[in-house]
Amino acid sequence: MKDFAGKIAVITGGGTGMGRELARQLVADGCNVAMCDVSAEAMAETKRLCEAEKLPQGLRVTAHVADVSIEDQLRRFRDELIAEQATDRIHLLFNNAGIGGGGSLFTNTREQWERTFNIDWGGVYLGVRTFLPMLVKADEAHIINTSSVNGFWASVGMGVSHTAYSAAKFAVKGFTEALITDLRLNAPHVKCSVVMPGHIGTSIVSNTRKVLSGSEADGFTANDILQARQRLKGRGIDTTALSDEDVQKVVLDRARAFRDDAPTTAAEAAKIILDGVKAGQWRILVGKDAHKLDERVRQAPEQAYTEEFYQGIVKEIDWRIG
């Protein structure tokens, strides 16, 4: 797909981060956009930013509240899209929504673990299931599923568990690779890509806490504080002398640093993704850190979870996560 003008794109997680930047850049290319997110307020800002560029006449940007882990909500999103975009087909599906969390089978609750897994993997699976008939009706179409470097390397460091997110992202990667043949046999005009970003400057850290706590507020629950202490301890930070307020400040500072000091911005990531789609790439690595990690894991898979491997990555690419 060399040109997005006149096409219709669906973006999940369009309220912030890469989803917002994908929407902005697609609209700038003349593409109609229908986005969903759990935050109507965040989507309103994305829509405002899109419309600030003075949309071409007839171009549509619509926002729909939906939790991608709940099939009925995705179906409602689809039905609203059909009505508001006046279409029975779409050309691009960006399964982008995601959160972190649920790192440990031991220290996180089952509900936290499954909430993360069901959004990061279930949202991709249900997104494809829900919108595939509309993609098939288009003359050409492309599915873009967001995995992660944690879809081929299940770690963020030696002292921090990362099971739910990594398991989900491995599932996304395998699912998308399997789709290549499934689509080739059954809908050859529909292509697919798996996106594997490294550290991208987004608000995923703070958004994750809000989603897992079920609140839009920035406040911390007692469980948030407990989980934060455990994660900081795993990173070698002694929290015994820190008050709960101190822990909150550390967490918020780290979330801001994750967003603001990342080696790749959300806008840069969106451009890499869209350029990859135009080039027909089925495997889109985003960021120099993603390329370097991919290279190192392939070179020495048996060493990928050792202290030496991790310290080598940190030293080589100044990699700082969370």
Features:
alpha/beta, 9 strands, single chain, 322 residues, globular, Rossmann fold, two-stranded parallel ribbon
Q: Assign the CATH architecture.
A: 3-Layer(aba) Sandwich
Largest sheet data: 7 strands, parallel
Shape, per Cα inertia axes: globular
Mean pLDDT across every amino acid position: 91
Summarize this structure briefly.
This protein is α/β, with parallel strands linked by helices and 322 residues long.
Describe this structure in words.
The two termini are 35 Å apart. The chain is globular. The chain is built from eleven helices and nine strands. The chain has one domain (8-202, 264-317): Rossmann fold (3-Layer(aba) Sandwich). Helix 1 crosses helix 9, helix 3 (71-84) packs parallel to helix 4 and helix 4 runs parallel beside helix 5 (163-186). It has a seven-stranded parallel β-sheet with strand order 3-2-1-4-5-6-9, with helices on both faces. The protein has a two-stranded parallel ribbon with strand order 7-8. The mean pLDDT is 91. With 322 residues, the protein is of the alpha/beta class. Strand 5 (141-146), helix 5 and strand 6 form a beta-alpha-beta unit.
Write the layout of secondary structure elements.
Layout: E1 8-12, H1 17-28, E2 32-37, H2 40-51, E3 61-65, H3 71-84, E4 92-95, H4 110-137, E5 141-146, H5 163-186, E6 190-197, E7 200-201, H6 204-213, H7 222-234, H8 244-260, E8 264-265, H9 266-278, E9 283-286, H10 288-299, H11 307-317
Parallel strand pairs: 1-2, 1-4, 2-3, 4-5, 5-6, 6-9, 7-8
Helix pairs in contact: 1-2, 1-9, 3-4, 4-5
